[in-house]
Amino acid sequence: MTGSSRTLVVVSAGLGQPSSTRLLADRLTAAVERHLGDGGLQGRVAIVELRDHAQDLTNHLLTGFPSPKLQAAIDSVLGADGLIAVSPIFSASYSGLFKLFFDVVERDGLAGMPTLIAATGGTARHSLALEHALRPLFAYLNAATVATSVFAAAEDWGTAGVAADGSLVERIDRAAAELGAAMTARQQRMPADPFADPVPFEDLLGSR
Amino acid sequence: MQFGVFSVGDITPDPTTGRTVSEADRIQIMITVALKAEEVGLDVFAAGEHHNPPFITSSPTTMLGFIAAQTSRLLLSTATTLITTNDPVKIAEDYAMLQHLADGRVDLMMGRGNTGPVYPWFGQDIRNGIPLAYEHYALLHRLWREDVVDWEGKLRTPLTGFTSVPRPLDGVPPFVWHGSIRSPEIAEQAAYYGDGFFHNNIFWPSDHVKRMVELYRRRWEHYGHGPADQAIVGLGGHVFMRKNSQDAIREFRPYFDHAPVYGGGPSLEDYMAQTPMTIGSPQQVIDRTLGFREFVGDYQRQLFIADHAGLPLKTVLEQMDILGEDVVPVLRREFAALKPAHVPEAPVHPRVAAARAALEAPAVEPSLEAAVETRAAVETPAAVPA
Asked: Cβ(B276)–Cβ(B201) under 8 Å?
């Protein structure tokens, strides 16, 4: 992170190509970049399409270590200044692929991370899965999830693209403003490297 | 440099036949493998320790004592000894006894164990894994070095006026390795004591193994045990060999695909590319193993996993023949040629060192060459005075 830019990583668990999940992710990304730009900050964006890592995620669960490609994706998330996480809603919750990824991101790796959660589904009846499933997951990970989450039902894509109160466009803008503000305010952090700075043994022995 | 094999003692069905050996047979297989290690000229046999099915190695010192009685040269070790759930007092007693019975041919590798329920089964808590490893080992370290110990910690009942018997053979405690796949705290612990550090070098990519060993070496120097390149490093390894590398892959693939630790995950080819596993010809194994020193430096011990994943005993013994005949002699020569003189060998008990020196000294009957040289020296004046 430098003073004039912020790194935004977008994790999309959409399965189709193209997917409506990715479509929502792209709209959110553009809106966050716009808000960062309004504050004089350049957004540097990286997209993680989980479909591309589906095999490696399973392998990671079974072997305990990531492939180089998956490691790069995990590292990009750990090094981000802000995160957009978007999943389709399956069976009243995030998809299994979405959960797999956040299962293998190291514990505490997302602590304090400004995070925008979003989801897609067939109808608006699934929308509270964001609050019942995604928000608790990111609370467990100690992420700093912004107040507004964004759900896009199939019918939302057929509404007028204007910022009417409560419309998808309005919610995207509100959530993006919140994430942009959180990313702008965030202090640079250095992830702890236990290999570079080991805790002296005497401290470890006496620290229980 | 020491070469050897280790066995975790798993009972796994042979995926090619569906056959599962009995506990009785599996125990005999493990003994056979240990005896074979000495027969084919390997230096070390290390037994795992587990307290749950499908493993049979709950009582390593009983097994190693039995092996000690039937071998004369083999070093007996562990892979690993559970420093967390075993009472360190009992470890001190058991392995000192084994050391006496084996005339010093004993060292140990400490490990924490990663099977959650084993901790509560032994009255411990897995969340205390690192503190248990630290506190228990700190006590064990004293029990082997002080005749009478007063001790109080947080995780075990205190001791007053305790003497662990038998005392270590000739007053020299068994050498200790600390094994860990991913915990820098254990590399730190090994460095602090000036003990050995072992990485299993099987389950993780080599760049991770490299980071762990580098940390250990750096901290070894920090704690004043000498230059980093004199730290004592051991590695595991997983190999399977046939003369033709494609035959090795074809034969081993079903075992890989069904092994409890590998199966259902990446392909054998991906796994070999991402980890140090080598399935191929003896020459490929030699080349890959020699390559280990490029990421961990000159090291002292190389162990290969032997019997596991349901491989038939016949196959395991064939693998050990290949190791003993085609691989290890070349590795010994090549590693020795590459190793700078100031890099030490792994410490062994003085009795082991003495026995080895006696073996390497000129035989009782002088060899033909020596006899010829001696005769030449007697018969020909070395130099004609000017």
From this structure: yes
Q: Is A93 helix (H, G, I), strand (E, B) or coil?
A: strand
B220 lies within 8 A of chain A by CB:
no
| CA–CA gap between residue A49 and residue A58 (Å, rounded) | 15
Rounded (5°) CA angle A115-A120-A122: 165
Please state which architecture CATH assigns to domain B2-379: Alpha-Beta Barrel (3.20)
Q: Model confidence over B89-126: pLDDT tens digits?
A: 999 999 999 999 999 999 999 999 988 999 999 999 99
Q: Does B228 touch chain A (CB under 8 A)?
A: no
CB-neighbour burial class of residue B85 (10 A; exposed 0-12, middle 13-18, buried 19+): buried
**What is the least distance, in Å, from the CA of A193 to any CA of chain B?**
10
Q: How confident is the model at residue B238 (pLDDT cuts 50, 70, 90)?
A: very high
Domain ranges of chain B: 2-379
Query: Does B257 contact A at CB distance below 8 Å?
Result: no
| Chain centre to alpha carbon of residue B138 | 22
| Residue A189 neighbours by CB under 8 Å, 6+ apart | A112
Is B264–A62 a contact, with Cβ atoms under 8 angstroms apart? Answer: yes
Distances (CA, A) of A30 to A20, A43, A173, B254: 15, 9, 10, 49
Chain B, nearest residue to A195 by Cα: B215
B186: nearest CA partner in chain A: A201
Chain A residues closer than 8 Å to B131 by CB: 208
Residue B34 three-state SS: helix
In the predicted structure, residue B376 carries a pLDDT above the cut 60? no
The answer to whether residue B195 neighbours chain A at the CB level (below 8 Å) is: no
Mutation to test the B interface, candidates A104, A195, A197, A207, most B Cβ within 10 Å:
A195
* Confidence at B202, pLDDT banded by 50, 70, 90: confident
Q: Taking CB atoms and an 8 Å limit, are A195 and B203 in contact across chains?
A: no
Q: How far away is chain B from the Cα of A102, in angstroms, using its nearest Cα? A: 19
Please answer whether residues A57 and A97 qualify as being in contact, where contact means their C-beta atoms are separated by less than 8 angstroms.
yes
CA-based Rg of chain B, rounded to a whole angstrom?
Answer: 22
Strands A93-94 and A82-90: antiparallel
Domain extent for A201: 5-205
Residues B26-71 have pLDDT tens digits of 999 999 999 999 999 999 999 999 999 999 999 999 999 999 999 9
Q: Which residue in B346, B366, B377, B365 sits closest to B174, CA to CA?
A: B346
Count structural domains, chain A: 1
B306 exposed, middle or buried (CB, 10 Å; 0-12, 13-18, 19+)?
buried
pLDDT in tens, chain A (208 residues): 446 899 999 999 999 888 999 999 999 999 999 999 999 999 999 999 999 999 999 999 998 899 999 999 999 999 999 999 999 999 999 999 999 999 999 888 999 999 999 999 999 999 999 999 999 999 999 999 999 999 999 999 887 766 677 789 999 999 999 999 999 998 766 667 778 888 888 888 875 4
